[in-house]
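Dear all,

This email documents one entry for the complex benchmark we are building for the journal club exercise. For each entry we list the sequence lines for every component of the assembly. Then comes the predicted three-dimensional structure of the complex as a token string, followed by one or two observations. Please use this as the template for your own entries, and keep the labels exactly as they appear.
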Amino acid sequence: MTTPGIVLLVYSLIVFCFYVYALTGGADLGTGAWSLFPPRQRSDSYRRLIREALTPVWEAHHVWLVIVVVLLFVTMPTAFSAMSVALFIPLLLTLIFLVLRGAAFAFSAYADGDVCSSAIWTLTFGVSSLAAPFMLGVSVGSILSGTIRVDPASGWVASNFVSSWAATFPIVAGLFMTASVLHLSAIYLTLETTDPSLQEDFRQRAGITGSLTAGLLLLSLWTASSGARLLFEHAVKGTFFWVFVFLIGLSLVGDMAGLYLKKYGWSRLMAWTFVTILMGAGAAAQYPYILAPDLSLSVAAAPASVLWPITIAVLLGTVFIVVPSFGALYFIFKRHAFRRTTKTN
Amino acid sequence: MLMTNLMTARLMMSTTLMFHIVFAVLGIGMPLLMIIAEGLWLKKREPVYLAIAKQWSKAFAVLFAIGAVSGTVISFEMGLLWPKFMAFAGPVIGLPFSLEGFAFFVEAIFVGVYLYGWDRVPPRLHWLSGCLVAGAAAASGVLVVSANGWMNTPAGFDVINGKAANINVWAAMLNTAAFTETLHMTLAAFLAAGFGVAAVHALMILRDSNTLFHKRAFAIAFSVGAIFAVLEPMSGDVSARYVAKNQPIKLAAMEGQWETEKRAPLRIGGYPDMNEEKTKFAIEIPHGLSLLAFHNPNAEIIGLKSVPRDERPFSPLVHASFDIMVGIGFALMGLGLLGFFLAWRMKRLPDQKWFLLLTLLFGPLGFVAVETGWIVTEVGRQPWIIYNLMKTADAVTPMPGLIIPFIGFMLIYALLTFTLVVVLKKLIQQSPKGTP
């Protein structure tokens, strides 16, 4: 069965938007979660750094997730509908944590009276920032695991509300997602400050979570052998598997070496490479399915009369609106994180 | 079981929408107020205008954050609660939703620039980013409401084997209801936000009449509210005639009209009894409904009895909501005209105590009108989720125990509302005293 070009293009767009979300909005969740683990000294300046890093950009980053949801229900309606039923619980929890985290962040800036203590909102902010990527990771892991079954005749979901995600592989995937956004955001935060002691705090945190990320990646590959059969067949037994392992290992080693040598810009580049290879490989392993093994992309896709105008609108919108607008936003607020001399001491 | 899953799902969706719409309205209306204030500052260089723009932008920062997350709840809940609706309708109404995504991008990005870029961006560019926020917010609203319009007047597809085929996304987006609905809602957003903000400043002037800050802020917000309050009833007339033509049963539910008859009366108040099939205790204005709906006193109006009982919207709620919305609409138009009249007579900003008190009392009602208006649109369309095509009961998720997430979300909304009130109160108290 061949997948028409337009369907492949749409699939790439969805993956791309989720990829950008992971690097931006996903990392913002990690940034928020770090507020739970301040160093004993400097906890004020540490939290201020976190707030300043998020303030002007988190809402714009969050839109990438909204775009992923919209693109899914517009272009892959049967798959979206099946996910909505089978993943009702983890998606609802993701949603609750995202709501609490956004609201808590906004409130904690202003609340310092006795009625709504800022300590409570700061805690809510941290906890929900930590829990959201976990639940999102569980959902993605479940989609990759090939356990969301769809009745081919009716196009209606055949899984129950629990079994596809309350399993080892999705939970490991959730932990992996949490560790990787923590790692990514810790690297970002080293570049957000010129204070050497804060940089050191986040360097250590990036190191610890980097090791965790590596360990959980191995664990998820191992659990995939039983928990995500198709992914395992495609990925682990595929021709490019060892190339993949080599490249992803190399990027992670490069990332950690950058941390060791305090070359944070380099670490960030390597971390981006890591995410790029990983998500690219995951998307390729899932292909030609959206929900393996019952729903292929070409079966799940909306008619071409929908896909073409949407794809053109999204591409034009991205090139002419999103890219220049984000360019302006980063130029105004994030120039300091992209200076050439990022190394201090 | 106390409530059916369908009922819980409907309540859950409606509380989410009713919560979000408040922030959507302020998200559309407040940027306009902010760019007017900042524009006046750029033109006249009176520091008070800059202070107003900055203070409004602080409140807007919190409101926008809550609006962004509650909007995300909607995008998820559409699928979580109505998976069969989304499986059918997702692609057809995909265009407005995708475009809305980009409007949201522009809004969120330039909200960042506007709120936190006061010292980082040149003044004119800063003002321009405010304009982009205002434009993108209004565009977002229009696009989302046009998707709702499609549920009322589905267009741009054929049904083949229970699936949407021959989809034309442009025809779907430009459906019949889209124009009247988006016009009515956009005007309502400016009206409700303008008067709502004006009410806050009226209160502050009543407390301390020696405040230039609140007087100028009041003048801007009241003027915006008043202009749109005068326009809104005209758009209401367009909407009513549209509903009469395209959704006669919704009109019948709005008016408690049971029989199909010519020269139908307009009923104000009263109770449409769903069992006895008549509307009791209403004040009836002869020919009124025929005149309103078709601009012809002898026009025929279709009644609720023309469809089976299980296809009738719950008229008591729709009728009461409609009357409340219209009543508030006219009251606010009166308030706006009164304000203009007083300003013209006095040749300055009216600051009589009774006038401020009136604004304080009536100003916030714009939000009540928005909520009741949506009840009319949504409950008036029942039992259909897609008018005459898919019933709401057939679209709901099979997920059992929806009462648990429903209670969870209710608690979250209550908590957010409470905290928000505390935060806004604090911001209002922090506003500059006297003449800045």
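Observations: Chain B touches chain A through 68 residues (CB under 8 Å). The two ends of chain B are 60 Å apart (CA to CA).
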